Automatic annotation (TrEMBL):
InterPro entries: Aminotrans_V_dom, Aminotrans_V_PyrdxlP_BS, Cys_dSase_SufS, PyrdxlP-dep_Trfase, PyrdxlP-dep_Trfase_major, PyrdxlP-dep_Trfase_small. Its EC number is 2.8.1.7. Its cofactor is pyridoxal 5'-phosphate. It comes from the Bacteria. Belongs to the class-V pyridoxal-phosphate-dependent aminotransferase family. Csd subfamily. This is Cysteine desulfurase. One of its GO terms (molecular function) is lyase activity. Catalyzes the removal of elemental sulfur and selenium atoms from L-cysteine, L-cystine, L-selenocysteine, and L-selenocystine to produce L-alanine. Pfam families: Aminotran_5 (PF00266). It is an enzyme of class 2 (transferase). It catalyses: (sulfur carrier)-H + L-cysteine = (sulfur carrier)-SH + L-alanine.
Length: 406
């Protein structure tokens, strides 16, 4: 049973008090974006009220305060993911941005005929940049298949892996199904063949505290907005040697050492990958979000969310005709489902009328939907501020939708 004080936690989230269509909001779209606690909102208001200034170049007090707070946030991110060095943390606009930085960098490394490998369980943002990279370089994209439970077929992964494989990328947790992938095995095996590994931690980060040194991963990317932070900020962790090897992604201010019209030299890490004025407030608020989640504690968060997952799975499966996609042994608190004979969008619309926010559709993972031969699913995704009572509201709403639509 949970050790979290859910009543106190819910008070931190002002949005949870609002009504939608006259009903209390039941927010179960956490895999799309999480809600923001007052502590993070306060950090944002404090920045704009008291020390809004551009960073890294001003001699004036406000600029120094903003620079200190931003670099302090970088260190919070470094400590959270246990990177060895602060300059291995690139503050990005989010997961998509981080992946594109690495994909662009590998254009300078890959040769025609080199192989790169993706999993069948990916979000489009961990597919499309790599296809663009293949077009640019002549590299070949291989796909690790999945099974009906929504797990990767690891025997196939080992068969596909070869001396030609230069890079493997997959998510730590699938946003569409919640599957936790065996990234340790993927990283170890890829390294034995000399391939680098990028892990998309966008969906893992709200539930699992990844230790990049223990994982020995080459790149790990996350979005702040999935873990109680604001949108438009995230992290790309890269091993120092890799970040030094990859060329910069964007050119501009802040990322240079010296500029003449003949030649420009680039700034040291992390600035080489942080062209232009960054999302200063977002970075600071991301740090505040990590403080907030760490004060609650990731083991307690994961245990409680698992309780919600088990409870919701059992109650939803009792509904006639309801099928859950993604039944992996290891999964986070995501339930992706359909009811036979009903389009997911129709269920989602009725749920919204009842105040229940879920996502419907392909969840930016069309290949997974194609695999199951479905147009999409209804996805309920839980966070540590959700309750069993809210799961009951969801289940009653789905039953009502079924009765109305069948
Ligand atoms: N990968 C996964 C697994 C995701 O869930 C998401 C967000 N849905 C992304 C990548 C993209 O993240 P963002 O849109 O924040 O860049």
């Amino acid at each position: 049973q949970t050790v979290l004080d859910i009543v106190a936690i819910r008070k931190d989230f002002p949005i949870l008090n609002r009504k939608v269509n006259g009903k209390p909001l039941v927010y179960l779209d956490n895999a799309a974006t999480s809600q923001t606690p007052q502590q993070v909102i306060d950090a944002i208001v404090d920045y704009y009220s008291n020390y809004n200034a551009n960073i890294h170049r001003g001699v004036h007090t406000l600029s120094q305060e903003a620079t200190d707070a931003y670099e302090q946030a970088r260190i919070k991110v470094q400590k959270h993911f246990n990177a060895e060095k602060a300059h291995e943390i690139i503050l990005t606009a989010g997961t998509t941005h981080g992946i594109n930085i690495v994909a662009n960098g590998f254009a300078a490394i890959l040769q025609p005929g080199d192989e790169i490998m993706v999993s069948a369980l990916e979000h489009h943002s961990n597919i499309v940049p790599w296809q663009m990279l293949c077009e640019r370089t002549g590299a070949i994209l291989k796909v690790i298949p999945m099974n009906l439970e929504g797990e990767l077929v690891m025997a196939e992964f080992h068969k596909l892996l070869s001396d030609r494989t230069k890079l493997v990328f997959c998510n730590h947790v699938s946003n569409a199904l919640g599957t936790v992938n065996p990234i340790e095995e993927i990283i170890d095996s890829a390294h034995k063949k000399g391939a680098a590994v990028l892990i998309d931690g966008a969906q893992a980060a709200p539930h699992i505290k990844a230790d990049v040194q223990q994982l020995d991963v080459d790149f790990y990317v996350v979005s702040g907005h999935k873990m109680c932070g604001p949108t438009g900020v995230g992290m790309l962790y890269g091993k120092e040697a890799w970040l030094q090897k990859l060329p910069p992604y964007q050119g501009g201010g802040e990322m240079i050492a010296e500029v003449t019209f003949e030649k420009t030299t680039y700034a040291d890490l992390p600035h080489k990958f942080e062209a232009g004025t960054p999302n200063i407030c977002g970075g600071i608020a991301f740090g505040a979000a990590l403080d907030y989640m760490n004060a609650i504690g990731f083991p307690a968060i994961a245990a409680y969310e698992d309780e919600l997952l088990q409870y919701a799975t059992e109650k939803l499966l009792a509904i006639e005709g309801l099928k859950i996609y993604g039944t992996a042994k290891e999964k986070t608190a995501v339930v992706s489902f359909n009811i036979e004979g009903i389009h997911p969008y129709d269920i989602g619309s009725i749920l919204d009328k009842l105040g229940v926010a879920v996502r419907t559709g392909h969840h930016c993972a069309q290949p997974i939907m194609e695999f199951f031969k479905i147009p999409g699913t209804v996805r309920a995704s839980f966070s540590f501020y959700n309750t069993k009572e809210e799961v009951d509201v969801l289940v009653a709403a789905v039953e009502k939708a079924r009765a109305m639509l069948l």
